[in-house]
Amino acid sequence: MSDRTPYAKQVLAGQSIEMPSWAFGNSGTRFKVFAQQGVPRDPYEKLADAAQVHKYTGAAGSVALHIPWDKVEDYADLARHAADLNVRIGTINSNTFQDDDYMLGSVCHPDAKVRRKAVDHLLECVDIMDATGAADLKLWFADGTNYPGQDSISGRQDRLAESLAEVCARLGDHQRLLLEYKLFEPSFYTTDVPDWGTAYAHCLKLGPKAHVVIDTGHHAPGVNIEFIVAFLLREGKLGGFDFNSRFYADDDLMVGAADPFQLFRILHELTLQDVLLPDSGIAYMLDQCHNIEPKIPGQIRSIMNVQEATAKALLVDHDALAAAQQAGDVLGANAVLMDAYNTDVRPLLAEVRAEKGLAADPMAAYAASGYAEEIKAARVGGAQAGWGA
Ligand code: LRH
Ligand code: MN
Ligand code: MN
């Protein structure tokens, strides 16, 4: 059996998962947004909280912004603030779903004036990428219809393609468009980008700057997400992940909480292609809201869950796996995977952290730091993450 530990430690030490700025604000369901004490009052404070997650995990060096939830006067200044805190601004996420104008859609809307407004917003997001140095524009559209006959399904695809082409043409050489798909919600009859196949077809037409992003919570129950990962990787069209957990739909719960085995299986496919490090062209992000749990520890736990799944995937003995597969040894091949999955990787991760000068237990180190008490005392009237704002 080959010893994968040194390689695993090297990859784990270099791994970085992006945090969503919206994880730090108040959030909830459509029934209730729960206000927590000490939440950030502006994007500057969201970055300060995110920096705490990086401080204790050493594996969360960037923060995704959501525009206009994170609108500021001076984005270059916000980027400098991030750098001072030892994090950087990552993906820019657009928002074409919270204006009254978007009731019937945004880039797929039947009215050209509304489409213009939506595309202009996406172009503004590219300006913000220029100002912050962000490389990726992440697009999720709430577009779709609720009733048969409400709009032309193919006409909406034409409008989508035209809008995306205009945005893609505006991107600089080092910038990418990441297109997110989602099975349903808020539209219930048709969704204009409902699945990876639709996203892939659009990205293929858009050319080399367009890639598909997989939000793990955006599939029907039972969908084999690792198959999608393997397929898109093979085609060079996997742009990144929005990691989260789902029990029923788009639950946005902590990644690895509902189904850590699924997360392991996804990371196994990524490990096979050796694309875990930041220069791999895959953007690894969390897309979560912490409705009932404290937010900074919620992010720390999520990063640790990704690290644990990654460590297990890195321990899979690829030589033994290939040999068993070649020999048609079904049970042997499966056992190679299960042996790795059933390994307790927490001591290995503690070693990786110690070698980086970090505490073995990031949750305990953060709790002992007193930061939570500090922000509760200092911040009154924190802001909502954006949902329902
Ligand atoms: C909506 C959504 C989507 C986006 C995020 C900002 O489904 O969760 O996944 O990435 O909002
Ligand atoms: Mn998402
Ligand atoms: Mn979602």
Automatic annotation (TrEMBL):
NCBIfam families: RhaI_grampos (TIGR02635). One of its GO terms (molecular function) is L-rhamnose isomerase activity. This is L-rhamnose isomerase/sugar isomerase. InterPro entries: L-rhamnose_isomerase (IPR050337), Rhamnose_iso-rel (IPR013457), Xyl_isomerase-like_sf (IPR036237), Xyl_isomerase-like_TIM-brl (IPR013022). One of its GO terms (biological process) is L-lyxose metabolic process. The keyword Ribonucleoprotein does not apply. Pfam families: AP_endonuc_2. Keywords: Isomerase, Manganese, Metal-binding. It comes from the Bacteria. Residues 73-275 form the Xylose isomerase-like TIM barrel domain.
